[in-house]
């Protein structure tokens, strides 16, 4: 893989996270290019990771085996059309991290025979602890799938989906997911303060409890439901708290929230792709 040239079109935060992850994993910096009209972004990435930077997207594409589209969804249609000729000449694998842009529309802009992999990373990717959903269009082969997975694994876990419609569910669970946990942390800290704890102590206890629980769930083969049962003594403090959650309909609240996020993802995807929502 390390002999492939990867060009990033766009040098924002997610591109920077991927580039940093690749370089820290030992990928040759000389084989990574970033192109962005914002020189502050390219200067930052060049200084941070010692990669090559360019002003011209088409030049970057012509040098690349893999092109990572890391621009805002609203800007992607025009950028994709601008580089379509270069893509047709060099035939790179296209990896899109633009939220909501469907592979069929990328193919319309770039060429119907282009190998395209759509991804949905989440913000913890900036700490190399992200989660990325991937979907490959029919033009991609096994080598290209493996290549895309290797690139996205530089910032965390990867998970393939067989249907592109599942990318909306990926968005609801992991794309938006960090905010759900931040909200729980926020309310736990607030509740602790109302019980007399100072803010710093409440924050420290809450965040480390979240970290510990997450590590236990990740490193234990048993489902979280089993782990919950194991730490819940009948008639104890944990049972009292969980009873309130259950009486308040927490399970239905979470289901409704994720469904709303998925439905909004579908709606936004229709809007950004110019379809009837």
Automatic annotation (TrEMBL):
Pathway: Amino-acid biosynthesis; L-proline biosynthesis; L-proline from L-glutamate 5-semialdehyde: step 1/1
Chain ranges of the Pyrroline-5-carboxylate reductase catalytic N-terminal domain: 5-100
Enzyme Commission number(s): 1.5.1.2
SUPFAM superfamilies membership: 6-phosphogluconate dehydrogenase C-terminal domain-like, NAD(P)-binding Rossmann-fold domains
Primary subcellular site in the record, as a coarse category: cytoplasm
An individual GO BP term: L-proline biosynthetic process
Signal peptide: none
Molecular functions (GO terms): pyrroline-5-carboxylate reductase activity
Binding residue positions for NADPH: 57
Domain Pyrroline-5-carboxylate reductase dimerisation, residue spans: 164-268
Protein name (record): Pyrroline-5-carboxylate reductase
Biological source species: Solemya velum gill symbiont
